[in-house]
Design a protein that fits this description.
Protein Transport Mog1p, Chain A; three-stranded antiparallel β-sheet; 3 helices; 243 residues; mainly beta
Amino acid sequence: MVIALVVVLAVAGAVLAFTLGGDDDTKDSKGAGTKSVASGGVTAKSSADSGAHVDSGSDSGKETAGADIENTADSSPLPSASTSASASGGSDSGGSGSGTTAATTYKGSQGFSIGLPKGWKYASTDSAGVRFTGPDGQRLLVAWTSTPKSDPVADWENQEKSMTRSQYQRIRIEKVSYRGWNTADWEFTYVDGGTKYRVIDRGFVVDSDQGYALLYTAKSADWDGSLRASTWKTLTETFEPKA
């Protein structure tokens, strides 16, 4: 938001990084060419053009729409739960018991960790970042960069110029308070396959060498539900950057 994210501030690259798995770009080329982690200022090519890689710890979003918002759908099969941790270079462990609703904690080889609510699992890792899937079509992309920009709001607004999602509609791009980090949210809706989705791409700068984006997607019809709200709360409260 690091993008995509669409995904991290590059702040992560998540330019909207929305994107999980096979991504729409494999089905719809209109998502190609979007940028990556917000604030990372890294340009990106379509995920269809670059090979997937293990969570090696290097910048995400460099070669694909790195939090690419454009690549949100997952058209490829997900790895089994038994192999996902090793395939990603990360690991899953039991919940911390700290009072959050996280069922497991995922630790990526890049150095970040995040609590996953019940029903969530690791999906894949590629140049956009690390992707997770949850119940009822929910998705999350975690993207990062080692060269974050200083103004996440301006970065999201700049990346928005390349947004080509069907029926894209901005809800907001604004600076938000998040654990003392320089943070901006990019929230919007779009339609895919007749279903309206809502996305929030949170890009934040941890320090001069670390920017991340959490690109979260859910069906618009479920957005105001308690499950969606508690899920986002868990994801944002349990995320920990590289130490």
